[in-house]
Amino acid sequence: MRYLDDLSIAEIASIIQKTRNNVRVLLHRSVSALKDILEEEENKYCSYGAQQFNKTIEES
Predict the structure, then answer these.
(1) Which residues in 19-54 are b (16+ Cβ under 10 Å) and which e?
(2) pTM, 2 dp
(3) Angle formed at CA 33 by CA 11 and CA 14, multiple of 5 degrees
(4) In this predicted model, which residue has the larger pLDDT, 4 or 35?
(5) Which of 11, 15, 23, 34 has a CA between 20 and 30 Å from the CA of residue 59?
(6) Chain segment 1-20, per-residue pLDDT in tens
(7) Where are the chain's structural domains?
(8) 3-state SS record for 4-43
(9) pLDDT reported for residue 5
């Protein structure tokens, strides 16, 4: 709703009948969960060489 429909936090809170603070928390958790899923998928399909390159960079 926030990103696809470009609704404000207040508008979302009104629609789902939650407080604005609760909507902020839900959005933060959702974006964080999506980030984790995308990172897992990237690692799953990333070539071995790219994984080693990423590992080297992270260790630096």
Answers:
(1) eeeebeebeeeeeeeeeeeeeeeeeeeeeeeeeeee
(2) 0.63
(3) 15
(4) 35
(5) 34
(6) 788 789 999 999 999 999 99
(7) 9-59
(8) CCCCCHHHHHHHHCCCHHHHHHHHHHHHHHHHHHHHHHHH
(9) 86
